[in-house]
């Protein structure tokens, strides 16, 4: 791997992907983020085996490759760089970061041992992230948290007639909210209704941008 990337772009990508990294993992790979070159960009991925977050950052790619580096170690190294372009190179499983006379060599693991993450599905519709955050904020508290009925610890997503409907219930309360989309025509394969764990959606909620007026009620 030979990559040149702005320090703030890499730090931002690592910060966002690290939100999916397990806090206390029994696997050494669970504390890491995967850096890999994909179609001229750098993709940074973190996962706790339940949720995966992949963030793409623009960069100059001179050599393809992958690196599996502990997320905390990488974040601390990046924090020591000013706003500048950083060169990333691989030496075995070690990742070297250098810029303006400052350099780090971070020991990593074999990227082939990283847990596989699913590829992003084909685009179905675009959502306004602030509207989605507002919808999640209104219904997440309606889902069950007692652990007795796993299906009630999820939020149902259903796409019908150009709107995405989110629904959650704990058996006593029911929350339903619709989010408008740009979906105009049904895809070849109908979009299935899916149930997404509340734990995963709380992570998504924290990633989505807040409205400027700070009013989500």
UniProtKB/TrEMBL annotation:
What are the recorded Gene Ontology BP terms?
Answer: DNA strand elongation involved in DNA replication
Cytoplasm as a keyword of this entry, yes or no, is yes
Q: Which InterPro entries match?
A: DNA_clamp_sf, DNA_polIII_beta, DNA_polIII_beta_cen, DNA_polIII_beta_N
Which Gene Ontology cellular component annotation is one that this UniProt entry carries?
A: cytoplasm
Instruction: Give the subcellular location.
Output: Cytoplasm
The record's listing under PANTHER family reads: BETA SLIDING CLAMP (PTHR30478:SF0), DNA POLYMERASE III SUBUNIT BETA (PTHR30478)
Q: Which family does it belong to?
A: Belongs to the beta sliding clamp family.
Q: What is this protein called?
A: DNA polymerase III beta sliding clamp central domain-containing protein
């Amino acid at each position: 791997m030979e990559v040149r990337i702005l320090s703030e772009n890499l730090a931002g990508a690592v910060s966002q992907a690290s939100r999916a990294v397990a806090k206390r993992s029994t696997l050494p790979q669970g504390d890491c983020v995967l850096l890999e070159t994909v179609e001229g960009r750098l993709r940074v991925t973190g996962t706790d085996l339940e949720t995966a977050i992949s963030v793409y950052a623009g960069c100059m790619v001179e050599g393809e490759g992958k690196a599996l580096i502990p997320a905390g170690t990488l974040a601390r190294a990046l924090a020591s760089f000013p706003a500048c372009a950083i060169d990333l190179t691989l030496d075995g499983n070690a990742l070297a970061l250098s810029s303006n006379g400052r350099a780090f060599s971070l020991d990593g693991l074999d990227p082939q041992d990283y847990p596989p993450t699913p590829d992003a599905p084909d685009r179905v519709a675009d959502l306004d992230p602030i509207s989605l955050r507002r919808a999640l904020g209104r219904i997440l508290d309606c889902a069950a948290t007692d652990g007795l009925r796993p299906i009630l610890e999820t939020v149902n997503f259903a796409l019908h007639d150009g709107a995405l409907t989110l629904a959650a219930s704990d058996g006593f309360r029911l929350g339903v909210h619709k989010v408008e989309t740009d979906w105009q025509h049904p895809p070849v394969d109908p979009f299935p209704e899916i149930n997404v764990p509340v734990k995963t959606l709380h992570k998504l909620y924290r990633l989505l941008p807040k409205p400027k007026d700070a009013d989500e009620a």
